[in-house]
Design brief:
Largest sheet: 5 strands, parallel
Shape: elongated
Structural class: alpha/beta
Strand order of the largest sheet: 2-1-3-4-5
Strand content: 5-15%
Radius of gyration: 24 Å
Number of helices: 9
């Protein structure tokens, strides 16, 4: 966990609680201090004090969203109201805890943060895996689709009213752009991307 709070005594208590439960925690006394290194840190649960000096917890949360990190954010406050909680949750916070916090609440936040981070990193990994498909031209996508339907190069050429030689050129470009050695591998990648996209829209 990354704890961002200017209250050193409270930070010490929270860190002792977490370490006593087998978790590691790093303390930052300001939002700016955390942002300076956030991009280099492994994804983790970020517990933010709402009333930070200079940059508030909500402002820090908004900046983390803008930078598109996989950190899971929870807000901690002794002064927050319903409006603050709604703002934080709409921006993707996993919880909004009030001081004095309960140990069970803190540990529950960590458990949910782990689930949030795993899902975020899974989506990132899939997006990277399927990114090469976006490099295909419209014609290359058409050729791949026809070959996926079992058509030969000659049949695909007839469907698109182009030469077999042009089809073979597109095949070569598809393999190169996708970094695969066969059309079968390219078709499997396209199928998996389609399946993943359908699952993500449910």
């Amino acid at each position: 966990m990354y704890l961002v709070d200017d209250d050193k005594d409270l930070a010490k208590t929270i860190i002792m609680t977490l370490e006593g439960a087998g978790h590691r925690a790093t303390h930052f006394s300001s939002g700016e201090a955390f942002l300076n290194v956030s991009g280099d840190l492994p994804s983790g649960c970020v517990l933010l004090d709402l009333m930070l000096p200079a940059m508030s917890g909500l402002e820090l949360q908004a900046e983390l969203v803008r930078r598109d990190h996989c950190h899971a954010v929870a807000l901690l406050t002794g002064y927050g109201d319903v409006c603050d909680a709604v703002t934080a949750m709409r921006a993707g916070a996993i919880d909004f805890l009030r001081k004095p916090y309960k140990r069970a609440e803190l540990l529950d936040v960590l458990a949910r943060a782990a689930t949030h981070i795993d899902e975020c990193e899974r989506r990132r990994s899939e997006a990277t895996k399927y990114e090469p498909l976006k490099r295909l031209s419209l014609r290359e996508q058409e050729v791949l689709d026809l070959l996926g339907k079992g058509l030969s190069s000659k049949q695909a050429a007839g469907e698109l009213a182009i030469s077999t030689r042009t089809i073979d050129m597109h095949r070569a470009n598809i393999l190169r752009k996708l970094g695969v050695i066969s059309i079968t591998a390219a078709l499997l990648l396209a199928r998996d991307a389609s399946t993943a996209g359908s699952s993500g829209r449910r």
